[in-house]
Write a structure and sequence with these properties.
165 residues; alpha+beta; 4 helices
Length: 165
């Protein structure tokens, strides 16, 4: 019995250690907020399309993930380096990981050394970025990029891009 408890405890610790890091204070982003992004999730089980709205409320960032019909899938608030549920939706761990990776991808490059601990990220020679433990960001433009991790890929683009240029 104690072996099972020890195994479960080690699995729980490993899961906690594998979380995508968050900055204590949200860094400056490459685009003004509010920002609406189109997200295409590609996985072995198929493709899904989502919309994400990011809004600033003082030092808080509100993240609202919606399906194409406008039905909320996840709503989170990032405050003081931690996620907080926003509304009555149940916690969505995949969305939290995606939001953390998106925050990194959308952060101004000059702010990264001040926002993320040393050793958690890497700027690649091709212009992309890596974030520990498992994210790769590949840019085709500042607001058009992919977020990739083993077995899962997200294609990100801004809606109404002509208004942002």
């Amino acid at each position: 019995m104690s072996r099972i408890v020890l195994l479960l405890a080690s699995l729980l610790l490993a899961a906690c250690a594998a979380r995508t890091p968050l900055p204590e204070v949200p860094p400056p982003l490459v685009a003004p907020l509010p920002l609406t992004l189109q997200i295409q999730r590609q996985h072995s089980d198929g493709r899904q399309d989502w919309l994400l709205v990011i809004q600033r409320e003082g030092q808080v960032l509100r993240w609202s993930l919606l399906d194409p019909l406008g039905i909320p899938l996840a709503r989170q608030r990032l405050q003081a380096g931690t996620w907080q549920n926003d509304g009555l939706l149940p916690p969505n761990p995949e969305a939290r990981e995606l939001f953390a990776a998106l925050l990194f991808a959308l952060s101004d490059a000059a702010a990264l050394p001040h926002s993320y601990p040393a050793g958690t990220w890497l700027r690649r020679a091709d212009g992309g970025r890596d974030l520990t433990p498992h994210w790769q960001v590949n840019y085709s433009a500042p607001l058009s990029f992919s977020l990739d991790r083993p077995g899962l890929s997200y294609r990100i683009s801004v809606l109404n891009q002509e208004e942002r240029n």
